[in-house]
């Protein structure tokens, strides 16, 4: 019988540990949906939480979802039952769809300080950082990286690459849009030419980058800011970004507040806070992206200045929304022929 | 000359030791009796080749077989149960005695058919072991022993699970076959009086040794050693 | 409770005697599963609308289903086909130093978290892996291409060959000792031994192994995503994942999930004819003292080669994981308290999932036993066990998403993440629990049924005194397996909030997403070690539970 007592105690312990503890209700809570790496201990999340909580006298609660695509799915899934006040981490290829849900409200703050090289004006979305997609290479494995997208695609004996799936990953989609920008209708041929040199197509950035670091391929699709991480944290100059002459596709990360939020003023205050130096200054070394606002603070030494390419490419969100399915099926066709 | 010779056979298993020196004449039928744990089955295992003795030699028909594997010894053995392979028909089971891969020549087939006739199993060749009675199964096992055509037949309590009338019938069948094919038989039984009715000799084992031996039925009526006397008293 | 027991003293036949409680427990478990699986799918279909016609007409989906079937079929054939000679080698070499250890090694892949194992496989067989480096040093121009169908097959064999070996090894326990002696006197060769003794015993176990391996390979997800190489190697489960992401078509995901379940059910039920519920024992009881082909020289070398190759095949990726972990910042990661909190949470979920799975498995097993032994309907009993195994074919993402919606409608979507994960994991590990418990329960019932009926031992007394001692060991083993699988599973954790109450596998993922791959390697090593630890903890248990 004592086994029964043990089992019962164990079961009770498990159940109570799994059930959530009811929180205290004193300060107002601002719920922000974002992606996992933002909210991890190395991301900007913890610092922002502390700084904002001090400023607003409220409690900031982050909800970490897998990545940007998951954010959009979650938004659609929850619909108007969502408990989120702010959604942070969508990128420009998803904004039109997000807006189409009708769940987002205009931000109502001043975004004139935002400088993204390409012009930006949007009443709903507030950009907080941006970056450029690039092929990162291992300088010990590849001494002469391709100098242009055209060169990468055309060279039959060129280096092999690891990329992500545009159906499940924002960098994957970014590469698709990049090729579309550069090659236009010729993107199918470009993909076909590239196909034999694609080592594998992973579901997300981390698997691809992990395989790249294992040496599975000399080139991986990542960001121009990836080498900065290695220089800053690992003190190595081994990994570099291949700069292409046609320009690089830009990814702008945005935040927005939900129309159904119970804390509209707090949400607005948070969006403003995102553009303040308190956040913008820490973004480079915590999120490894370029800050949207030039606060006067210089970028850390690890940022060589190469992170901003000569030419920036970007489709507007509505175009992406209208053509995404079609472009993806062209991609599918080209790679499965 | 003795057909089977066991020379100073010694076998140790943990704390227990077996020590036997014996001979068996050709064509003889020996009943090996004794209380459980006396070593009867172990002795059969040693003769058949499933265990290797620590010391001593085993000679069958003049040949030293101590180092030979069971398949090479002129011995065939029958157990209490699991004598047949459950998924093969009776015919196939018996035929395994002629060739372990079931590749039968014309002579082999005749041998098999004769064995079926000798054990009164004609008509049941196609049946599976599960579809025939216990007695029929043991008879099939006997038929296989016949097919193997080896001169020494060892039986380890093969009829214990059968009813008394059937047991007698089986023992008499063994006796008939023995005489017909001139086999030497050693069989283990825990029913000494029953065994004595069929056997030529009885050997009584106790604590790993053959304590007493003698012709039937004399030894049963006048046991010499106290151990045998006690044993027979309780075996009713 | 059946009133007839209390009042009907004239009901004496076995058929009518006894409560219908067992049947109700089975029905109850069935309803729970149906509600969880069917309910969540229905929720998705209801909310987002599901169109069945694309599944029937879209050529892309047809290609996906075809590829899924093909790779599952190949993987199963390879895994089980190769497992037979390896299991035979282990069975023949019944005592050598380290046999127990090597067999335990065979139990490792199934509990290793998939993504960790895949990275280990890449480290050995990838373009820059050990194999290709060796080939290069040998001067060969041939290099092994991992990504693609070959990679998927390799990974599946890595996971399932050891599992199949452990599923098949108990077959040798079933061969009576006399058969070996018999074969000995008959002078059977090695091949004849296999034909007459080993294969008949194996053939009872092979269908079960085939079924479970097929279901595992069919619903394979992480392996295909990393090693598939491209969109040409998409499986149904991957298509479901894609439908839930950018496309955001949960209705389509639900329809695909139903298609997968229907297909797998069809295959499993077809195989049920040949399935016999055989126990999932560690298979270590077998002793081949009288096996005639033990000492054959050629046989000995063959066995050595087989065992060494199999263990090397399994051990190399594991060694790669260990080495990668040891090279990383061990101290920093191990001393991180957040890691140990995450471990605690994962453990709590694992225990909850294991207990729930065991409870369901027991309910199903009791029902199956009632059908098989009391009502003499073994076919129906087998169907129940097949149904218990089918949950392998249910995509956890779909259940997770459906659960999320259900929680959302009650307004508790944020809080109940851990509960949802435990529920989904319980469903996921249910087949292992059923396989572990049901056959032993049925076997023991066959032995003791008449005695219990005669002595009037029923219900709780029977369970406590007769059934529990018989199933205690296999139950612990099944619970350990279930717990270990759940512990290392990332699965649906990503669907819910991963910031607050995170689990250990999610922590691994966080590290990878933040560029910290060296820390991720250490976390992966810790994850494997802890998973094995969880298994041992539940299996061997604390002192009082020793059987």
Helix and strand topology:
The complex is a heterotrimer of chains A (337), B (236) and C (547).
Chain A: H1 2-18, E1 29-35, H2 36-39, H3 45-56, E2 59-65, H4 68-78, E3 86-91, H5 95-100, E4 104-105, E5 126-138, H6 149-154, E6 161-164, H7 170-183, H8 187-194, E7 198-202, H9 205-213, E8 219-223, H10 226-233, E9 239-242, E10 248-258, H11 264-274, H12 277-280, H13 283-286, E11 290-291, E12 312-313, H14 317-336
Parallel strand pairs in A: 1-2, 1-3, 6-7, 6-8, 10-12
Antiparallel strand pairs in A: 3-10, 4-10, 5-8, 5-9, 5-10, 5-11
Helix pairs in contact in A: 8-14
Chain B: E1 4-13, E2 16-24, E3 29-33, H1 40-48, E4 55-60, E5 63-64, E6 75-78, H2 90-95, H3 106-118, H4 134-148, E7 152-156, H5 164-181, E8 184-188, H6 192-198, E9 201-206, E10 209-215, H7 218-221, H8 226-234
Parallel strand pairs in B: 3-8, 3-9, 6-7, 7-8
Antiparallel strand pairs in B: 1-2, 1-4, 4-5, 9-10
Helix pairs in contact in B: 3-4, 4-5
Chain C: H1 3-7, H2 21-48, H3 53-57, H4 59-92, H5 99-106, H6 108-111, H7 114-125, H8 130-137, H9 149-168, H10 177-186, H11 190-218, H12 222-227, H13 236-243, H14 250-272, H15 297-327, H16 330-334, H17 337-374, H18 378-389, H19 396-409, H20 417-455, H21 459-487, H22 504-513, H23 517-540
Helix pairs in contact in C: 2-14, 2-17, 2-19, 4-9, 4-11, 4-15, 7-15, 9-11, 11-14, 13-14, 14-18, 15-23, 17-18, 17-20, 17-21, 19-20, 20-21, 21-23, 22-23
């Amino acid at each position: 019988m004592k086994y029964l007592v043990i089992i019962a105690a164990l079961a009770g312990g498990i159940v109570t540990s799994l059930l959530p503890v009811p929180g205290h209700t004193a300060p107002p809570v601002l719920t922000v949906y974002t992606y996992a790496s933002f909210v991890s201990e190395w991301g900007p999340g913890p610092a922002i939480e502390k700084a904002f909580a001090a400023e607003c006298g409220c409690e900031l609660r982050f909800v970490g979802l897998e990545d940007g695509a998951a954010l959009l799915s979650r938004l659609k899934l929850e619909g108007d039952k969502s408990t989120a006040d702010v959604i942070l981490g969508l990128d420009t290829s998803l904004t039109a769809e997000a807006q189409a849900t009708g769940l987002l409200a205009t931000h109502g703050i001043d975004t004139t300080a935002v400088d993204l090289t390409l012009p930006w004006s949007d009443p709903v979305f507030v950009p907080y950082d941006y970056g450029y997609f690039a092929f990162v290479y291992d300088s010990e494995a590849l001494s002469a990286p391709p100098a242009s997208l055209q060169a990468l695609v055309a060279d039959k004996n060129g280096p092999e690459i690891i990329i992500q799936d545009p159906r499940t990953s924002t960098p994957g989609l970014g590469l698709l849009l990049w090729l579309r920008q550069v090659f236009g209708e010729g993107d199918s041929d470009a993909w076909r030419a590239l196909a034999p040199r694609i080592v594998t197509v992973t579901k997300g950035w981390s698997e691809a980058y992990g395989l790249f670091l294992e040496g599975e391929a000399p080139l991986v699709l990542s960001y121009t800011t990836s080498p900065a991480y290695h220089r800053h944290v690992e003190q190595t100059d081994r990994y570099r970004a291949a700069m292409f002459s046609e320009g690089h596709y830009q990814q702008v990360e945005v935040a927005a507040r939900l129309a159904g939020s119970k804390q509209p003023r707090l949400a607005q205050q948070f969006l403003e806070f995102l553009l303040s130096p308190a956040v913008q200054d820490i973004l480079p070394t915590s999120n490894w992206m370029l800050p949207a606002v030039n606060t006067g603070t210089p970028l850390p030494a690890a940022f060589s200045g190469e992170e901003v390419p000569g030419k920036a490419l970007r489709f507007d969100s509505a175009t992406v929304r209208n053509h995404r399915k079609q472009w993806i099926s062209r991609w599918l066709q080209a790679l499965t022929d | 000359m003795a057909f089977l010779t066991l020379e100073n056979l010694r076998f140790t298993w943990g704390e227990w030791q077996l020590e036997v020196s014996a001979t068996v004449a050709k064509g003889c039928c020996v009943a090996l009796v004794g209380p459980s744990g006396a070593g009867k089955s172990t002795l059969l295992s040693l003769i058949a080749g499933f265990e290797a003795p620590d010391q001593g030699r085993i000679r069958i028909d003049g040949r030293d077989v101590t180092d030979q594997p069971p398949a090479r010894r002129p011995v065939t053995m029958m157990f209490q149960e699991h004598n047949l392979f459950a998924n093969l028909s009776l015919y196939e089971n018996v035929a395994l005695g002629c060739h372990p891969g079931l590749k039968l020549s014309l002579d082999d087939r005749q041998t098999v058919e004769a064995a079926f006739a000798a054990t009164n199993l004609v008509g049941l060749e196609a049946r599976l072991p599960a579809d025939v009675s216990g007695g029929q199964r043991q008879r099939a096992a006997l038929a296989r022993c016949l097919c193997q055509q080896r001169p020494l037949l060892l039986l380890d309590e093969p009829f214990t699970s059968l009813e008394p009338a059937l047991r007698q019938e089986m023992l008499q069948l063994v006796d008939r076959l023995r005489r017909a094919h001139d086999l030497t038989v050693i069989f283990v039984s825990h029913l000494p009086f029953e065994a004595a009715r069929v056997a030529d000799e009885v050997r009584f084992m106790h604590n790993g040794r053959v304590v007493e031996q003698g012709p039937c039925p004399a030894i049963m009526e006048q046991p010499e050693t106290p151990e045998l006397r006690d044993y027979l008293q309780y075996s009713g | 409770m059946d009133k007839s027991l209390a009042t009907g003293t004239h009901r004496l036949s076995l058929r009518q005697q006894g409560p219908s409680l067992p049947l109700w427990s089975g029905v109850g478990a069935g309803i729970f599963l149906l509600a969880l699986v069917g309910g969540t799918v229905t929720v998705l279909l209801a909310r987002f609308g599901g169109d069945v016609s694309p599944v029937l007409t879209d050529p892309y989906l047809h290609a996906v289903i075809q590829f899924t079937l093909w790779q599952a079929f190949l993987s199963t054939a390879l895994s089980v086909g190769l497992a037979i000679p390896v299991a035979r080698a282990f069975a023949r070499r019944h005592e050598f130093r380290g046999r127990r250890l090597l067999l335990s090694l065979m139990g490792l892949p199934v509990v290793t978290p998939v993504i960790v194992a895949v990275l280990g496989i890449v480290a050995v067989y990838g373009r820059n892996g050990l194999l290709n480096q060796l080939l290069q040093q040998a001067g060969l121009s041939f290099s092994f291409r991992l990504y693609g169908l070959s990679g998927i097959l390799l990974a599946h064999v890595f996971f399932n060959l050891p599992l199949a070996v452990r599923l098949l090894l108990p077959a040798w326990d079933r061969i009576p000792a006399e058969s070996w002696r018999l074969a000995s006197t008959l002078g059977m060769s090695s091949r004849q031994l296999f034909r007459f003794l080993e294969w008949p015993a194996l053939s009872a176990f092979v269908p079960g192994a085939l079924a479970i391996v097929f279901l595992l390979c069919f619903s394979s997800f992480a392996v295909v995503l990393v090693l598939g190489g491209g969109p040409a190697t998409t499986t149904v489960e991957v298509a479901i994942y894609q439908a839930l992401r950018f496309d955001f078509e949960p209705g389509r995901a639900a329809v695909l999930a139903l298609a997968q379940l229907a297909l797998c059910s069809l295959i499993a039920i077809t195989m049920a004819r040949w399935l016999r519920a055989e126990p999932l024992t560690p298979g270590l009881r077998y002793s081949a003292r009288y096996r005639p082909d033990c000492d054959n020289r050629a046989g000995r070398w063959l066995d050595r080669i087989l065992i060494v190759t199999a263990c090397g095949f399994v051990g190399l990726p594991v060694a790669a994981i260990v080495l990668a972990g040891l090279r990383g910042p061990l101290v920093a990661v191990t001393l991180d308290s957040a890691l140990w909190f995450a471990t605690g949470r994962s453990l709590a979920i694992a225990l909850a999932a294991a207990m729930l799975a065991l409870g369901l498995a027991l309910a199903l097993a009791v029902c199956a036993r009632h059908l098989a032994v009391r009502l003499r309907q073994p076919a129906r009993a087998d169907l129940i066990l097949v149904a218990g195994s089918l949950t392998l074919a249910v995509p956890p993402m779909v259940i997770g998403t459906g659960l999320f919606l259900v929680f959302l409608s009650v307004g508790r979507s944020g809080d109940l993440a851990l509960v949802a994960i435990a529920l989904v994991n319980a469903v996921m590990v249910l087949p292992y629990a059923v396989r572990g418990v049901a056959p032993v329960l049925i076997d023991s019932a066959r032995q003791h049924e008449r005695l219990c009926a005669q002595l009037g031992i029923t219900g709780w007394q029977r369970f406590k005194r007769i059934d529990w001692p018989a199933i205690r060991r296999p139950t612990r083993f099944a619970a350990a397996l279930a717990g270990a699988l759940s512990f290392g599973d990332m699965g649906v954790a990503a669907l819910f909030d991963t910031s607050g109450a995170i689990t250990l596998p999610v922590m691994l993922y966080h590290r990878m997403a933040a560029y910290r791959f060296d820390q991720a390697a250490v976390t992966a090593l810790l994850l494997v070690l802890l998973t094995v630890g969880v298994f041992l903890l539940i299996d061997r248990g604390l002192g009082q539970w020793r059987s």
